[in-house]
């Protein structure tokens, strides 16, 4: 403190001496010994002193602005460090909540992670991976405990909707589908070999997601986005993909028996060796899709756009078609065993989706 006072005093003395002595020296130097009136000399000294005061004032203002800027930077850095510490603390507490035995506590932790990801872009990728891992570890397919949850071979009507049998998993899935609306750096989020039977994915974004060998039987995927996703050998029996976007997705060997794909975007999707028996593909856009060795028996293809589709060795016996069904050039539907019938007309607007909790799925007519 004493040193600061001494330094301030020395600076004040130096400035005083500068303002008192320097103007006279400057004026005498400029006059170079010439004789002038005392009043004129006094005015010249006063002008020099005013100029010096203005220069010193400007320097003081600049120094004050610099000091303010430095203080603002320090304050911003401190605020940023405080915010990062706060986010880290919230992140740690949310992860701890995921390990709780209570469902409501786990749901709270999932919502906390969801909120952090929405406000912290640098943490979004990590949280997406955590949510995906949470689903994979809590919902393996086939189920780790068939007695607690009906496993392979159980009729879908005997399986409770995901939001009923495991509400926290449905929250994690919804969080993923909402957060993936934002652009992300990494791709191919892994949800493979996961039990998502009767999951509610309506309107969710799941592009470039790996769902290989997962079970989405009876899942609601109305207006969902599955662009470029991998669904190899996935179970989508009775799934509702009405108006969904499945463009350029890989569904090689997938089971879509009884699935609803009305007005779905299937352009350039790969259905090689997929089972689409009894699937409803009315008015679907499958231009450029690959159906090599796919099973389309008893499927509803009325109004479907199959132009430029690859139907090599596809089975179409009993499939319903209409005058609005579009076929690839050179394809002869009459020799494929299809059943021409009247077009159903415009589809009814899906104003209200049937509740997944009460919906009952009819048994499939096709053989297992």
Alpha-carbon Rg, integer = 37 Å
* Strand percentage: under 5%
Distance between the termini: 90 Å
| Strand order of the biggest β-sheet | 1-2
Report helical residue fraction.
25-40%
Low-confidence stretches: none
Broad shape: elongated
Query: Tally the helices: what do you get?
Result: 6
Q: What is the residue-averaged pLDDT?
A: 87
The SSE string, one letter per element, is HHHHHHEEEE
Largest sheet: 2 strands, parallel
Derived from helix and strand composition plus strand pairing, the structural class reads mainly alpha
Count of extended strands:
4
Q: Which helices and strands occur, and which strands form pairs?
A:
Layout: H1 2-31, H2 38-98, H3 103-119, H4 121-138, H5 162-165, H6 167-179, E1 189-190, E2 209-210, E3 320-321, E4 339-340
Parallel strand pairs: 1-2, 3-4
Helix pairs in contact: 1-2, 2-3, 3-4, 3-6, 4-6
Descriptive account of the structure:
The protein has 368 residues and is mostly helical. 39% of the residues lie in helices and 2% in strands. The protein has 6 helices and 4 strands, in the order ααααααββββ. The protein has helices at 2-31, 38-98, 103-119, 121-138, 162-165, 167-179; strands at residues 189-190, 209-210, 320-321, 339-340. The chain has a two-stranded parallel ribbon. α4 runs antiparallel to α6. The longest helix has 61 residues, at 38-98. The chain is elongated and about 125 Å long. The protein starts with a helix and ends in a 28-residue tail after the last strand. The mean pLDDT is 87.
């Amino acid at each position: 403190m004493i040193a600061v006072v001494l330094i301030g005093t020395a600076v004040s003395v130096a400035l005083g001496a500068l303002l008192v002595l320097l103007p006279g020296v400057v004026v005498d130097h400029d006059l170079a010994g010439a004789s002038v009136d005392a009043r004129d000399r006094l005015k010249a000294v006063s002008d020099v002193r005013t100029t010096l005061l203005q220069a010193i004032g400007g320097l003081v203002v600049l120094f004050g602005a610099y000091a303010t800027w430095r203080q603002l930077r320090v304050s911003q850095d401190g605020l940023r460090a405080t915010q990062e510490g706060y986010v880290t603390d919230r992140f740690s507490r949310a992860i701890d909540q995921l390990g709780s035995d209570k469902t409501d506590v786990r749901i709270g932790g999932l919502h906390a992670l969801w909120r952090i990801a929405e406000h912290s872009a640098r943490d979004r990728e990590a949280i997406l991976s955590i949510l995906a891992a949470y689903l994979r570890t809590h919902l393996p397919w086939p189920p780790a405990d068939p007695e607690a949850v009906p496993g392979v071979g159980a009729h879908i009507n005997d399986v409770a909707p995901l939001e009923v049998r495991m509400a926290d998993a449905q929250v994690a899935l919804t969080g993923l589908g909402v957060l993936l609306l934002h652009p992300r750096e990494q791709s191919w989020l892994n949800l493979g070999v996961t039990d998502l039977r009767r999951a509610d994915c309506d309107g969710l974004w799941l592009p470039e997601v790996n769902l290989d060998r997962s079970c989405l039987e009876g899942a609601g995927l109305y207006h969902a986005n599955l662009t470029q996703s991998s669904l190899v050998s996935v179970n989508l029996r009775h799934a509702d993909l009405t108006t969904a976007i499945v463009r350029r997705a890989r569904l090689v060997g997938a089971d879509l028996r009884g699935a609803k794909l009305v007005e779905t975007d299937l352009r350039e999707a790969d259905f090689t060796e997929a089972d689409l028996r009894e699937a409803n593909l009315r008015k679907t856009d499958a231009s450029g899709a690959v159906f090599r060795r796919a099973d389309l028996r008893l499927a509803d293809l009325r109004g479907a756009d199959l132009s430029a589709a690859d139907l090599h060795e596809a089975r179409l016996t009993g499939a319903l078609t209409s005058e609005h069904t579009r076929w690839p050039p050179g394809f002869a539907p009459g020799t494929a065993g299809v059943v021409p019938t009247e077009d159903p007309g415009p589809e009814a607007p899906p104003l209200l989706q049937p509740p997944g909790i009460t919906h009952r799925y009819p048994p499939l007519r096709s053989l297992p």
